[in-house]
Amino acid sequence: MAPKFGTRGLRGLVTELTDDLVADYTRAFLAACPHGGRVFVARDLRESSPRIAEAVIAAARGEGVDVVRAGMLPTPALALASMGAGAAAIMVTGSHIPADRNGLKFYLPGGEVSKNDEARIVAALGRPAAGRSGGVSEGEGIAGAYVDRYVGAFGAEALGGLRIGVYQHSSAARDLLCEIVARLGAEAVPLARSATFVPVDTEAVDPETTQRLAAWCLEHRLDAVVSTDGDADRPMVADHTGRIVPGDVLGPLTAGLLSADVLCTPVSSNTAVDHMGFARVVRTRIGSPYVIAAMEAALAADPAARVAGYEANGGFLLGFEAEGPAGGLPPLATRDSVLPVVAPLARARAEGRTLAGLVSTLPPRFTAADRITGIDTDRAREFLAAMRADPARRAAFFDALPPEEAIDETDGLRVTFEGGAILHLRPSGNAPEFRCYAEAASAEAAQTLLARHLGKLGTEVG
């Protein structure tokens, strides 16, 4: 499949992300979007990322733009630095997808690119190189500023007395996460550091990883295990038993601690948030550009609103000047993993609960999600169109479920059934994947729904 440009930037096979292609997208971005005369460039830990980062740097300098070489960093740390400097940024990462793929994420001085920005970038492709020579400097203090952001807001005792495992694998935040946990007062226990890239999808954790989490908790007497995906804009958190706390549970727990009143989240997120006392919950299409657009609209309507956003994968976006337990927390309207790791753990400790105990106080709605990979994208598109158009086709596919109560086509096909069960089918916008989301009144029921329909989905689109 040829490289694809979508809501999270450019992605494709490493063999197809040639230096020429990378340079073309870099030039198009710098020509189409504001950049303040500088661009910060960072990368994840994929084997291919250093080569691609150098291609980005060379192309940007050739356009006469000064480059800050930021090295290996979490995506949100890069965004925090570039936005603070009034500069653009390009992150070389494929996020959670396999190591034979990679990509680019683009940031404006004001934050993530919008759908309109994407269209302008595509329209600017094919430009000749300008033949100029921008400067280059080394980024300094970027990682430290990112760590200090959370230590300053939560304080040195926020996680005091806890033993927290840090599943390091090949996360771009693997060392910073250990440092943050330790500086917040916990004992950090590093786990499973990898010399090769491990594609961790925090929204679809594989059974082997789930078993390892439980084993680590038992072996090391842990209060929690924390981690991220490859570029560290999605969190993974497990309680003291090794049970994953879904991202769309971490999100409202974090928002509650920070006293947010308006939440923007994709249609796929757990419906428990609708019953947690927030003033308003705005549902969007899946993808941070849509969440950000909804946040911006809410702030335009009421500049004093305390607006936050989160995705089902756990990435959290802060749209207002919040107050943490120990100090201020400035806005960061890009997907972040550290805040939804720290905030629920700090909240549970402050309330004298385990993380599992805190989660148990929420409305009893449980989600499960997974994906079919390597799909035939044409078959997937045809299948989804038929499911949307034909009630009989849906009835056959959902044959074990009660009658339909509601249908939502905001993004993919989301069906609510009598009794409250929900199934949501959606092909990926930038990878040959088809995701299935399930929601029910118990974790077991959600997993059963997912397993049954994921198998059927594989037959339809595999």
UniProtKB/TrEMBL annotation:
Residues 392-451 form the Alpha-D-phosphohexomutase C-terminal domain. GO terms for biological process: carbohydrate metabolic process. Keywords: Isomerase, Magnesium, Metal-binding, Phosphoprotein. It holds the Pfam family PGM_PMM_II. It comes from the Bacteria. GO terms for molecular function: magnesium ion binding; phosphomannomutase activity. The keyword Amino-acid biosynthesis does not apply. SUPFAM superfamilies: Phosphoglucomutase, C-terminal domain, Phosphoglucomutase, first 3 domains. Its cofactor is Mg(2+). InterPro entries: A-D-PHexomutase_a/b/a-I, A-D-PHexomutase_a/b/a-I/II/III, A-D-PHexomutase_a/b/a-II, A-D-PHexomutase_a/b/a-III, A-D-PHexomutase_C, A-D-PHexomutase_C_sf, A-D-PHexomutase_CS, Phosphoglucosamine_mutase. The keyword Iron-sulfur does not apply. Residues 4-124, 145-242, 263-365 form the Alpha-D-phosphohexomutase alpha/beta/alpha domain. Gene3D superfamilies: Alpha-D-Glucose-1,6-Bisphosphate, subunit A, domain 3, Alpha-D-phosphohexomutase, C-terminal domain. Belongs to the phosphohexose mutase family. This is Phosphomannomutase. It comes from Histidinibacterium lentulum.
